[in-house]
């Protein structure tokens, strides 16, 4: 575990729906289906230019649910890293939660402290990288991302390009600090 003494600011990105295009609302389950949103390349680069560290914090329960095997999970994660490098996207770390309350894979317990809307992924990054969460942002496309950011103490940015999240925000009893309909709007907020 890497522990630093300098307090830093960060922007956390959910993966599916923010960094890459979901497939029928789900994570890609095949390497060939991985496709980044074009805007994310510039957004991550601009955020880093503003002095923020960048992280991915994402639920990835397909392994727990038996929808992919361990080999496919690793292949997908490796492919994402290759795509990031190819596009000059730098993430200081990537945090995944593989758990799910309906999981069938005994390797991944059904209960954890990292599955969003719980803030465990963000809190872990804050500890490992000395991040001041109050000066940080979490960008997600779902109410559970907003709730995780709220619980962790970050400012939250909801990317709701299809304007579908209002009922889920009400269900989770949360409100984002900002709502955007274009990823570039996040740069104005963070600036």
Can you describe this structure?
With 191 residues, this protein is an alpha/beta fold. The chain has one domain (10-190): Rossmann fold, CATH 3.40.50. Helices cover 32% and strands 15% of the residues. It has six helices and six strands. A six-stranded parallel beta sheet has the order 3-2-1-4-5-6. Helix 4 (143-152) crosses helix 5 (166-172). The longest helix is centred in the middle third of the chain and has 17 residues, at 70-86. The radius of gyration is 16 Å and the shape is globular. The model has no long low-confidence stretch (mean pLDDT 94).
The H-level CATH homologous superfamily, spelled out, is HAD superfamily/HAD-like
The structural domain count equals 1
Task: Give the assembly state of these chains.
Answer: single chain
Q: What is the 3D form?
A: globular
Report strand order across the widest sheet. 3-2-1-4-5-6
Query: Would you tell me which CATH topology applies?
Result: Rossmann fold
Helical content class: 25-40%
CATH architecture term: 3-Layer(aba) Sandwich
How big is the Rg? 16 Å
How many individual β-strands? 6
Name the average pLDDT. 94
CATH top level is Alpha Beta
Specify the biggest β-sheet: 6 strands, parallel
How are the elements arranged and paired?
Elements: E1 10-13, H1 38-49, E2 53-59, H2 70-86, E3 93-97, H3 120-129, E4 137-140, H4 143-152, E5 155-159, H5 166-172, E6 178-180, H6 185-190
Parallel strand pairs: 1-2, 1-4, 2-3, 4-5, 5-6
Helix pairs in contact: 4-5
């Amino acid at each position: 575990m890497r522990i630093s003494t300098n307090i830093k600011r960060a922007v956390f990105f959910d993966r599916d729906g923010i960094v890459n295009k979901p497939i029928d609302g789900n994570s890609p389950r095949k390497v060939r289906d991985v496709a980044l949103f074009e805007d994310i390349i510039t957004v991550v680069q601009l955020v880093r230019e503003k002095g923020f560290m960048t992280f991915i914090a994402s639920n990835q329960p397909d392994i727990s649910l038996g929808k992919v095997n361990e080999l496919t999970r690793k292949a997908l994660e490796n492919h994402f890293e290759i795509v990031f490098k190819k596009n000059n996207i730098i993430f200081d770390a990537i945090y995944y939660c593989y758990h799910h309350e309906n999981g069938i894979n005994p390797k991944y317990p059904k209960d954890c402290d990292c599955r969003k809307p719980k803030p465990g992924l963000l809190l872990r990054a804050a500890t490992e990288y000395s991040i001041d969460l109050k000066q940080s942002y979490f960008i997600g496309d779902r109410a559970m991302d907003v709730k995780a950011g709220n619980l962790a103490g970050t400012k939250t940015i909801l990317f709701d390009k299809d304007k579908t999240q209002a009922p889920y925000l009400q269900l989770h009893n949360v409100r984002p600090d900002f709502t955007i309909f274009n990823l570039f709007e996040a740069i104005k907020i963070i600036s």
